[in-house]
Amino acid sequence: MSLSSLSKNGHVKSLWDELVTSHSVRSNNLRNKAWGQSKFSLGKSQSFSSLSSSGLMGTKPFPIQPPEQLVKGELILTFPLFYNRQIRVQLRPEWSPGSVDYFHRLVQHKCASCSLYRLARQHSDDPGEGVILGVMQNLKSVPLNTQRGICPEGSHRHYHDPDANNEEKDENKENEEEKRNPYDDDNPRENCEDCECQGPILQRGMVAWVGGAPGGPEFFINLYEDAVKYEGSRHAVFGEVVDYESFDLLQEIMEENTALGDSRVLHDELHFYIDLE
């Protein structure tokens, strides 16, 4: 099933919509916890700006080391409920140095809220494909990263192509593609503030922040086999899962029971703690 296709119930048009929906669900859960309400009570969808102004997301900037001075290393997610098995994320400071710096700080101050809470798998007939969504934050001690991800060479801004599934190419296709890709010698990536590009095209195993945010706190792990080209380069990718043991655990998590029908919220959030190697 194509990521761009409309689901039968008309609720989800793309992975982007799915992640934005997830952000709304999680945002409301965070608010409800803060207000002493049920964590599964779903209210009106909140925007990134309104969530930030509520004080639930830190916005104070902090100095970030250049990518070449950051140690790549691995971010280790350890799950007590799975007998302390681990998901190892190879960090990529060349894609998002601000995110890597954020994790170094988060490990030092301890992750007060680290968990997986939701599955999204309606875009494939394979139950093992989809995305796993979670949160990593310690808002009292570590402000969120606000530095946008780096746009890799050859990437371009996200665009909606209504003919994405049409194999026929019209005579204006080349001109349209040129308009969509704003990078050339006179308009380098560094000067293109409205391009939305924050990282590479999503591949299986990549880990990125939800909803196009530069620094979370909500993230997702992509488990779709095919490259998610339809989403363009809008997601700030900060790492990759590359080892078999981690993928085995991710597949088991994809089989976890969910609640609330279409929202696919896990019955029990899977808490983990983090470390760096």
UniProtKB/TrEMBL annotation:
GO molecular function, one term: peptidyl-prolyl cis-trans isomerase activity
InterPro entries: Cyclophilin-like_dom_sf (IPR029000), Cyclophilin-type_PPIase_dom (IPR002130)
Top-level taxon of origin: Eukaryota
Span list, region Disordered: 146-191
Biased composition, class Basic and acidic residues, residue ranges: 154-191
Residue intervals of the PPIase cyclophilin-type domain: 86-259
Record-linked SUPFAM superfamilies: Cyclophilin-like
Protein name, UniProt field: PPIase cyclophilin-type domain-containing protein
